[in-house]
Amino acid sequence: MEYNIFFDYGLIFIGLIIAVMAQSYLSYSYNKCRNIKSNSNLSGLEVAKKILKANNLDNIHVVLIKGNLTDHYDSSRKVIRLSTDVYNDTSIAAISVAAHECGHALQDKEGYVFLRIRNSIVPLVNICSKVGYIAIFIGFLFSLMDLAIAGIILLLAILVFELITLPVEFNASSRAKEQLEKLGIIDTHEKEKCSTMLTAAALTYVASVITTLLQLLRLILVALSRNRD
């Protein structure tokens, strides 16, 4: 029992450390690149509009959204939402984030398979996660291990979603760098800084996958341990 408890808390600690490290690296890279103004002197809004226009995506609107790093592309409404710092700023960080969201718009236009799969399974993942956590809670509370294990299986949908998200995010970043270079928005020296910023953002998704894996492993071990008892 002591070993199980130690291992249990160890998995929680490892997952927490990984998540904190990934987020810290993103914050560090973002703040660093935020202090470096791009030579093009274009704001995130201007970069997004330039990329969209160059790719005949005039039907996609770019709007302002509150928050920090809340930027995202809404495929259902064909809208790119940029946070205040990205929308108005001319830094390397701002144009990198704006270009990345445009990368998602390009994926949507071309019917990028992983984006299509991810968007299609969102409702299923939401249902599986809610039902899964409820089943696990009730299963552990009343020692119904079959129910708890069923809940854990349902939570695998979250892992599948996050695994599919990885190629979506890395591909969007690749498209972003390609567009920034192709349209002459960044020069050779700025390319490396943009790559650093986009890589840091992508690593947060890698951390999410690892954290979810550890969480599922922990739940499985707890369920197996209680089932033996």
Key terms for this structure?
229 residues; mainly alpha; 3-stranded mixed sheet; 3 strands; elongated
The proportion of residues in beta strands is 5-15%
Number of domains: 1
Give the low-pLDDT segments.
none
Distance between the amino and carboxyl termini: 10 Å
Nearest-angstrom radius of gyration?
A: 21 Å
The level of helicity is: over 70%
Tally of strands:
3
Number of helices: 7
Order of helices and strands: HHEEEHHHHH
Topology:
Elements: H1 2-34, H2 44-54, E1 61-65, E2 72-74, E3 79-83, H3 84-88, H4 92-110, H5 113-141, H6 145-182, H7 188-228
Parallel strand pairs: 1-3
Antiparallel strand pairs: 2-3
Question: How do you describe this structure in short?
Answer:
By secondary structure, the chain is mainly α.
